[in-house]
Amino acid sequence: MLPFVPAAAAAVVAAAMLPTGPVASTAAGPDPSAWGDRRLAAQLTISCVDMAHLDRAEHHAARGIGAITLLGTPPADLRARLRDVRDAASTRVRPFVASDEEGGRVQRLRGVIYRLPSAETMGTWRAARVRRTAHDYADRMRRLGVRMDLAPVADLELPGGYIAALDRAFARDPDRVARMARAWRLGMRDAGVATVLKHWPGHGAAGDSHTGPARIPRLSVLEGRDLVPFERELADGAKVVMVGHLLSAGLTRGGVPASLSRHALRYLRRSAGQDAVIMTDSLAMAAASSSLGISPARATVRALRAGADWAMPCDASPLRAVRAVTAALGDGRLPRARAEASARRILDLKEQWGLAPAS
What's the predicted TM-score (pTM) here? Predict the structure, then answer.
């Protein structure tokens, strides 16, 4: 995603009792097969909320949205406001609150935590230092109520690419990127924050997908280079992966980006395994919606039909996307079984992080 440029004592105790890291499942969690279409649709949708309007996040939590991504500049009372968001959830299944905390230019919470170096700078460090840095920062994220980091970036630092221009990649060497991404994930995990590996299948060679179609090398090139950090991290235990709006010969077809491509998402599922949660990047980006002549709500339906588990419309009206997904479930365009399987993956993830009941 593009960086937006610029209580009560009982509630505090309850927050403190949340697990600081993933916990082993002890029983079957909530069963989405018993849910109505609208509740199911909401759980598969991620909204985006400017932190100047966190009342909207409370509304989304009350409507059962699966996750809320924070944008903009955080208020000084962010911790209390996010407690209100958590408490607004209409069921015991709470939304993940997520933020882009890569470091450098992409770091939304720096005003209420502290500034991090860029991924490019951290990529020159030892992995142990990166892990400590991630742990210390994640500890502060968790205390604020932000339980998911939309990082690490596993893209390669390729000259002329959009990612490299913003210092968002750890390195050019796939092996080093894989080691740094693992260190970031483990440091965050140890302090109680889930991570999202991005932007599969590798944004390093692409231009800016916020403004139009973004093409990367053909699949045979990616398999020996860009895909390496993703495959290693997924094999090592990364549980959430974000798909970019990227075009690659042999992987995508007909001008449809990976995030909306059934062929690409089947390829990713084989690599990620059946338990991993596949998330889209913001579907308000031009490469996923306006360049294709569709709205973020329609792109949400297309992404879920193609095989994504979590779709992020990231526009001003995420509940419009929920209505579109509800309609697609109702008329069969989105198979109910597929949606329930995605919801189970999300619920399993939430159970591990204390955001859904074990039974």
Answer: 0.91
